[in-house]
Amino acid sequence: MKDILTAPFVKEMCDTTANMYRLGWDERNGGNISYMLDEEEIAQYLDINHVLREIPTGFKADALIGRIFIVTGTGKYFKNVKTDPENNLGIIRIAEDGTTAQLLWGYKDGGKFTSELPAHLMSHMARLSVDKDNRVVIHSHPTNTLAMNYVHELDEKKFTHTLWEMCTECIVVFPDGVGILPWMLCGTNEIGEATAEKMKEFRLVIWAMHGIYGAGKTLDETFGLIETVEKAAQIYMLTAGLERKNTIKDEDMIKLAEFFKVDYRKDFLNI
């Protein structure tokens, strides 16, 4: 059996968390990631029948029974994942009762998965109902996206439209726009349920005055979605309050979307 520390999915998690910390998106233990894995790939590195311990999830996820995830740990700092993955990450399988996580590897110091796991599982179920290839959910606190929450109206259409205006690539990268939730108490099933409902429509959901949730097929794709929103928000914050002499017009956005053959939110334009 191969050394699990050489597994591509472990390396990807280490690289992604390191990049997110470097960019300032995940201070202290802020942020979390869950990545659904392929059982055949996992079996090359682990005895998937050997359960180290069982941990209640606090949520019934029948649609995910038997699914295996690698998940960042609660209270863990992203800056430490790369140097100590076995303490800061864990591989879990959703047990037959739908409410228990079977630990197959990781959380070596006795820890467990992120407190936001129910929200992640709900978002996974929502995204899988839309696109069976969606495997990743990332939550982070990108600085400029957060700053924009305080100075821009928290209306999905208006917020998305502003982001699309900031960079030519935006409507191509996230043509489905950005969903927004009002401030809600984090770590609860309520915010998880609200996020999952938005995830049926959007791959990106902003938690007002808190951060952003992104979903995608790969870690790279999901990271790239959040990265693009953050770049657009940075440009907005750099230019907010200044006289705007130029902008990307709605008719130009339509040309972009149609040229790159993306299914964009036509109702988020002003035409």
From TrEMBL:
Q: Which SUPFAM superfamilies match?
A: AraD/HMP-PK domain-like
User: Under the cellular component aspect of Gene Ontology, which terms does the record hold?
Assistant: cytosol
Q: What is its main location?
A: cytoplasm
Tell me the pathway: Carbohydrate degradation; L-rhamnose degradation; glycerone phosphate from L-rhamnose: step 3/3
UniProt: Zn(2+) binding residues: H139, H141, H210
Q: Where is the active site?
A: E116
Which class of enzymes does this protein belong to? lyase
| One GO biological process term | pentose catabolic process
Q: What is its EC number?
A: 4.1.2.19
Question: What InterPro entries has UniProt attached to this entry?
Answer: Aldolase_class_II_sugar_metab, Aldolase_II/adducin_N, Aldolase_II/adducin_N_sf, Rhamnulose-1-P_Aldolase
User: Needs which cofactor?
Assistant: Zn(2+)
Record SMART domains: Aldolase_II
Compartment list = Cytoplasm
What would be an example GO MF term here? metal ion binding
Every Class II aldolase/adducin N-terminal domain range: 11-237
Q: Highest taxon of the source? A: Bacteria
- Cofactor note text: Binds 1 zinc ion per subunit.
**Keyword annotations of the record:** Cytoplasm, Lyase, Metal-binding, Rhamnose metabolism, Zinc
Substrates-to-products reaction catalysed: L-rhamnulose 1-phosphate = (S)-lactaldehyde + dihydroxyacetone phosphate
The similarity annotation says: Belongs to the aldolase class II family. RhaD subfamily.
- What role is this protein assigned? Catalyzes the reversible cleavage of L-rhamnulose-1-phosphate to dihydroxyacetone phosphate (DHAP) and L-lactaldehyde.
Q: What name appears for this protein in its UniProt entry?
A: Rhamnulose-1-phosphate aldolase
Give the originating organism: Lachnospira eligens
Q: Tell me the name of the encoding gene.
A: rhaD
